[in-house]
Every structure is written in C-alpha cells, then in structure tokens.
Amino acid sequence: MKVALAGCWLGLLFVVAAVSCGSPNGTTTQTTASETGAGAGATKAGATAQAAAGTGVGNSAGAKASGASATGGTAGTALAVSGASATSSAGVAGAVVSTAGASVAGASVSTAGVAASTGGTLATAGMPPTAAAGSGAGEPPAADPSPGCTSGTIKPGHTNETIQIGSTRREYVQTVPSSYDGKKPFAVLLDFHGGTYDGPRWDSRASNKFHDMAETENFIYITPTGLNQWWTTTEGADGADGMFMRALLDKLKTTGCVDNRRVYSTGCSMGGDMSFYMACYFSDVIAASLPLCGSASFDLEKECKPKRPVSLQFVIGSQDTLNCWAPPRTSVGNPCATEVQAVFKTLNGCTGEPKKTHDGVCETLDQCAEGTEITICMVDAQHTTIYTNTDIDIYKDGWEFLKRYYIH
C-alpha cells in the first residue's frame, strides 16, 4: 500500500476519540487503536484516518489455548450449513426457521414465486433455497471442491503464512482445525483486522472467539495483514489489497481442500470496510459478508458492482461516534447503515420493506434475489466494544448468519 500519514497520532487511555487528518480528496478510512491507546497508522495518500482508542477490540493480551501464541493467529474451517428450505415435488417451498441467533415461529411459503408469509424466512419457488440455521428443512447443495481436494498439502494446525506479490511480501495467519483431512471441502472465514493491527494480533486478541470456533465449527480461519497494518479499499479491484486477496485465495484453494461455495468475510472498523470491499469486488468468491463497526470508505453507489447478490449483515454500536444508523453522516463521512441497506436493496433486487429482527435491534430485507438477505443492526456498544455487546452474540449469531449462505 502506498501510504503516508505524518503528524497524526492518537495516544489515549480508556477514552474513545476520533482524529481527523487533512485529505486532498476527502476519502476516509477507519482504525481501531489497542487498549494501550496507540492509535496512529499509515494510510493511503489523500485519505483521512479516523482513529479510535478503547478497550474492546484492542485487547491483544492472552494467547488462545488451542495452539495460538500471543503473536500468532489461527484459521479453521466451516463446513455445515445447518438447514435449508425444503421444496416439494409440486414446487412449494417448505418451512424455514430463521435467523442468526433466534428461532422464528412460523413459516414462509412460496409457490411459483408468490410468497405467503406467516412470520418466517422467505423461500422463493424457482430459486435455490436459503439455508436456515437449525431448520432441518432440507439440505444445501453439494460442496464445490477446490483443486486442493485432490492435490493439497496443508495440514491441521496454526501457521504464519507469506505470499509474494511482485516485490511485496504479504502475510496472513492460517488455522486449520483438527478435523481437516484434506478430502472433505471446508468453508473459509476471512477476518480483517482494524487499523494499526496485524493478522497475528487480531487473531490472538483475548476477545476473539472466531479462533476457537474454527475448531468447533470446522472452518478454515484466516486473518490477513494489511500493508503497514492498514487496508486500502479505494484503489478498486486491482489495488494492492485486491491483488493480495486474489493471490491468497488462489493459494488456499490450491493447497487446501476448500468448498468454493462457502467463503465468507468479516472484520471490524477498517476491517469492516474491507468486508464491504470483498462483497463488492469479490462477489464471485464471497458467499456472505459480516462487516462490523466500519462502513465502506469507497463509493458504494458508484463503485460496488457485484457479479451476483451477496448476503450482508452490518452491525454498528449505538454509541459509536465513527458510524451512523441514518444520515447525517459522522465526521468520517462513510455511509450510514440505512444508506448501506438502500444500496444493497437495489444491488440484490430486494422487494418489500425491512422487518424488525433480533428482538428489534436489526432490520432485515429477506425478499431478495437468489435467497439473499440484507440486515443492518444497531447494538448497545461503542466502536471498540462491538464484540462484547449483550444484544447480539457477534460470534455465535454472526457465524450462524454467514453459514446459511452459499454460492450456487
């Protein structure tokens, strides 16, 4: 990444603050500082860095008992999509119990594309069903195995990986669960760090549960490192991070047995921005995305042109001064949650109005093309405490959301 940020430092203890550095073009990027308060970083020339210091996201103390060191990360493998809508021989979609973290009473029935809903998740006849966690109403399609399922070399364990892209060496942490045998395709979760972090520290922070869930939920867990601990999403698909993601995924699918239908992305703050980037520029690879506490710093309306609909769940905190539920936007300038939903409503061909979900903290559009959904949530949290909020279990509910979706 061609970055330079001089004269912008944030040194705070137990205080959340936003610092704005001058920008020729007005673009913005977000970063979360560690709990020690070191919140500086480098960003692409012409961008505005927004730094936040706090205690939630920034906790890198403590190594994981499952083999990660304090400087290491892990990657696991997600396989199952638990439940899908069932379709009878007459073409009537069966009941679906939805959604991440909550069972919904009732069912949504659709015949020949006309839905009659009684409080459940929509399954449209003639479209592949949306697999619903815990429904047990049918099975998702068979896995699409990557080349590594016949010639792969990776083994279970936690490793620090590198990949050379031109003259630049890029790094990432990879954790493969003990259940991996190189023959059964596993899902993949890409988890992007906040600004001033790196892959090892993001993976090994004490609050990270995705690391351990990789073992229990059987998915490969990847925490990449941005150049100079920063992500740049304003360079488009052919930028430095776009080339990094393509190379990383190509390598992983060649050396590992991956289910091409189930590759997911998540991340917080600047990592949330990167999750939007993956949904927009890597829609042929990413089945669903879970951006947290960080909106897109690139122009969604003009630049986001996915090749297929991608399910999205965007979660922000009600006390987050860097993000917003509805306009006006914050000083960061990135789109608010309702603006994000409006853009993806069009991109995913959604109809109808948002429904309240997750005990009212979320709004969901579930009548979208190819069984996708667009959900936005606002929980009781600050920018840096999103992972420990009590409204939604980000890890459990987040993974339940992601694993319902697949590329068909």
Q: Give me the count of strands.
A: 14
Query: What is the molecular shape?
Result: globular
- Average pLDDT metric: 76
Radius of gyration: 20 Å
Strand order of the largest sheet: 5-6-8-7-9-10-11-14-13-12
CATH superfamily of the domain at 69-81 and 140-403: Alpha/Beta hydrolase fold, catalytic domain
- Output the CATH class name of the domain at 69-81 and 140-403: Alpha Beta
Number of helices: 8
CATH-defined architecture of the domain at 69-81 and 140-403: 3-Layer(aba) Sandwich
- Helix residue percentage: 10-25%
Low-confidence stretches: 1-138
Write down the secondary-structure element order: EEEEHEEEHHEHEHEHEHEEEH
End-to-end distance: 34 Å
CATH-assigned fold name of the domain at 69-81 and 140-403: Rossmann fold
Biggest beta sheet attributes: 10 strands, mixed
| Strand content bin | 15-25%
What structural class do you assign from the helix and strand content?
alpha/beta
Brief rundown of the structure:
The chain is an alpha/beta fold.
Please provide a written account of the structure.
With 408 residues, this protein is of the alpha/beta class. It has helices spanning 148-151, 199-204, 210-217, 240-255, 270-281, 300-303, 337-347, 394-403; strands at 27-32, 47-52, 108-111, 114-117, 157-165, 168-176, 186-192, 219-224, 258-268, 286-292, 311-317, 355-357, 362-365, 374-379. The strands form 3 sheets. The chain has a 10-stranded mixed β-sheet with strand order 5-6-8-7-9-10-11-14-13-12, sandwiched between helices. Strands 1-2 form a two-stranded parallel sheet. It is globular, with a radius of gyration of 20 Å. The chain starts with 26 loop residues before the first strand and ends in a 5-residue tail after the last helix.
